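Re: Re: token formats

Sure, here are both.
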Amino acid sequence: MITSIAHATIYVLNQDEALDFYKNKLGFEVGDDMKVEGDFRWLTVYPKSNSQLQLVLAEPKEGPMFTKDSADKIRSLIEEGAFGAGVFETENCQKTYEELVAKGVEFIQPPTEQLYGVEAMGIDNSGNWFSLVQR
């Protein structure tokens, strides 16, 4: 029986730049940062208040998971903003939105009342959208 989810993957264009964004803009902590095989880098981050689900910041590269063609296609889709990085909860969406805007984070939707709470939608430095949600 599966009991929990430990990691979810966000495909990024550059791991160093993504690490800077998630750590210094969103305030995430670094979980793991290591070379596993060859140039494969296992890089994870998580919100300070919850290390149970870590986000893997992965560059699509040719290797066991992708052919060169499929890695190139994924990179192209990232650049088009076709992927989401997830939904991040906050206790105060308006305050967090203002803090992140002050740090230079780009938003495509300001905090807006929804049926499930208040939501703002931002974009990471690779082009992945993410939601901030206050329930």
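Second one below.
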Amino acid sequence: MKSGWMLLLAAWAIATMATAGALFLGEVMLMTPCTLCWYQRIAMFPMVLILGMACYSNHRSGAVYALPFACIGLVFAGYHTLLLAGWVPSAWVPCGAGVSCAKQSLELFGGVQIPWLSFAAFGLITVLLVCYLKKTSLCNPKN
């Protein structure tokens, strides 16, 4: 097993759990996602396939392709988290119609909101991918 493969596997596992959770909330619990949640889903869902293929083939290019999705998702999740915390003015809320991005009705684990979990997932994936890419750097003499 090549060095760093476990980092890639952990990133894939987190993306898979986050995708399964988002699909469960939408399809089983029938919760309609807000605009910011949709943007986070757009960033998270492709990473399951990209990182899965990268794990299977043990090829570092999958991490290179997944890292922009993780960074973009991290930005949206961070903005959503700040919005829920009340640190972003309500005039900057992107949802004009439909489900409000500023109001969350579901809390898990005693008060943890969904955007916080999304921010943690994107943050962990980003850190794992950066560590994996550093470990498997082409300039690294160990590879």
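The domain at 3-90+101-139 is CATH 1.20.1550 (Bromodomain-like). The radius of gyration is 16 Å.
- S.
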